[in-house]
């Protein structure tokens, strides 16, 4: 009799232990929130090297990054010239390294061209393809100096209109960046944009006759107190188009904010930014404006004396 009771007790205890073990196993599995953690736990069986683990971790980070960060709406005005495909190829491949980007390409043309359409479909990016022709009175003539006319006005306004018609204030989370097709971008500039609450600013290399233009920060407060700029540093915002990005909420709430041919030459950026913020409210990024992550490069116009038929260049 005693023996039987002891056996029951033993089996009962055994069952409890098994259930407990199983539940511990289960919780520890569900505690493994990340793939890299799981891989790390089993790295011996999987024979993973430290480098492979690092790569997995980076992939995982990127996936999370995509989930948690705003969409960067990169607005690119573009127009036909021999280097157009080369320029767009260069920046589209930079954008392929940015997981949370939506590229808005606006052609300065009466219609959407096959060249740009093909490039976009082959890019594997999330994109919107628009077109808006610059009125002839504003179009730059071949021999005109570049500063003589506003460039990209029509196209950037068309992108702003698209954003305002297609996105919802409070629902869509994003940042808007005006990304000219001929500049050079380090992918880090897009990582900086993820931090923007209102308007973020950073240095731009090779612009305004300087090796770089940059906001100048007050050492004590860390706020922008002025600008180092090759031209009119006294402008309210002496910042190149490549040197700032704006939170989508601001773009969607200030529906009156557009670029205009009426703005004084060289004041497009300054006047546009004035709709949204003040110098004191600017958010300095790129390590307190100590790093250059974007360059205002310009591509030399190539001499093209002949056209090979049947090749899209
Ligand atoms: N752009 C355009 N139509 C034009 C001239 C320029 O759409 O007639 C675009 C160009 O592709 C670029 C942006 O506007 O994305 C700024 O032009 P550009 O680079 O010539 O200006 P800059 O760098 O000299 O300020
Ligand atoms: Mn340019």
UniProtKB/TrEMBL annotation:
It holds the Pfam family Glyco_transf_43. The keyword Membrane applies. Mn(2+) binds at residue 182. It is found in: Golgi apparatus membrane. One of its GO terms (molecular function) is metal ion binding. It is a single-pass type II membrane protein. It is an enzyme of class 2 (transferase). It comes from the Eukaryota. Keywords: Glycoprotein, Golgi apparatus, Manganese, Membrane, Metal-binding, Signal-anchor, Transferase, Transmembrane, Transmembrane helix. Its main location: Golgi. Its cofactor is Mn(2+). GO terms for cellular component: Golgi membrane. The chain crosses the membrane at residues 7-25. GO terms for biological process: carbohydrate metabolic process; chondroitin sulfate proteoglycan biosynthetic process; skeletal muscle organ development. UDP-alpha-D-glucuronate binds at residues 77-79, 108, 151, 156, 180-182, 296-298. The keyword Glycoprotein applies. The record marks 213 as: Interaction with galactose moiety of substrate glycoprotein. Glycans are attached at residue 288. CDD domains: GlcAT-I. The active site is at residue 269. It catalyses: 3-O-(beta-D-galactosyl-(1->3)-beta-D-galactosyl-(1->4)-beta-D-xylosyl)-L-seryl-[protein] + UDP-alpha-D-glucuronate = 3-O-(beta-D-GlcA-(1->3)-beta-D-Gal-(1->3)-beta-D-Gal-(1->4)-beta-D-Xyl)-L-seryl-[protein] + UDP + H(+). Its EC number is 2.4.1.135. Belongs to the glycosyltransferase 43 family. This is Galactosylgalactosylxylosylprotein 3-beta-glucuronosyltransferase. It comes from Tribolium castaneum. The lineage of its organism: Eukaryota, Metazoa, Ecdysozoa, Arthropoda, Hexapoda.
């Amino acid at each position: 009799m005693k023996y039987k009771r002891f056996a029951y007790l033993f089996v009962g205890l055994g069952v409890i232990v098994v259930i407990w073990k199983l539940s511990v196993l289960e919780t520890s599995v569900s505690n493994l929130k990340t793939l890299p953690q799981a891989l790390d736990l089993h790295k011996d069986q999987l024979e993973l090297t430290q480098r492979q683990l690092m790569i997995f971790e980076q992939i995982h980070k990127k996936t999370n990054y995509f989930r948690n960060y705003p969409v960067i709406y990169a607005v690119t005005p573009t127009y036909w010239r021999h280097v157009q495909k080369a320029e767009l190829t260069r920046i589209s491949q930079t954008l392929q390294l940015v997981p949370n980007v939506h590229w808005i390409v606006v052609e300065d043309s009466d219609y959407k061209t096959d060249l740009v359409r093909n490039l976009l479909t082959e890019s594997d990016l999330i994109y919107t393809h628009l077109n808006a022709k610059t009125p002839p009175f504003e179009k730059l003539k071949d021999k005109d100096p570049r500063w003589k006319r506003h460039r990209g006005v029509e196209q950037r306004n068309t992108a702003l209109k698209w954003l305002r018609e297609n996105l919802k204030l409070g629902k869509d989370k994003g940042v808007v960046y005006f990304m000219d097709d001929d500049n050079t971008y380090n992918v880090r500039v897009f990582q900086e944009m993820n931090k923007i609450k209102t308007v973020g600013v950073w240095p731009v290399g090779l612009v305004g006759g300087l090796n770089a233009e940059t906001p100048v920060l007050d050492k004590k407060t860390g706020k922008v107190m002025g600008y180092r700029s090759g031209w009119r540093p006294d402008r309210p915002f002496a910042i190149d188009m490549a040197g700032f990005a704006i939170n989508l909420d601001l773009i969607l709430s200030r529906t009156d904010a557009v670029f205009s041919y009426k703005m004084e030459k060289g004041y497009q950026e300054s006047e546009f930014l004035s709709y949204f913020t003040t110098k004191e409210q600017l958010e300095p990024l790129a390590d307190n404006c100590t790093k250059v992550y974007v360059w205002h490069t310009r591509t030399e116009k190539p001499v093209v004396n002949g056209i090979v038929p049947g090749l899209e260049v």
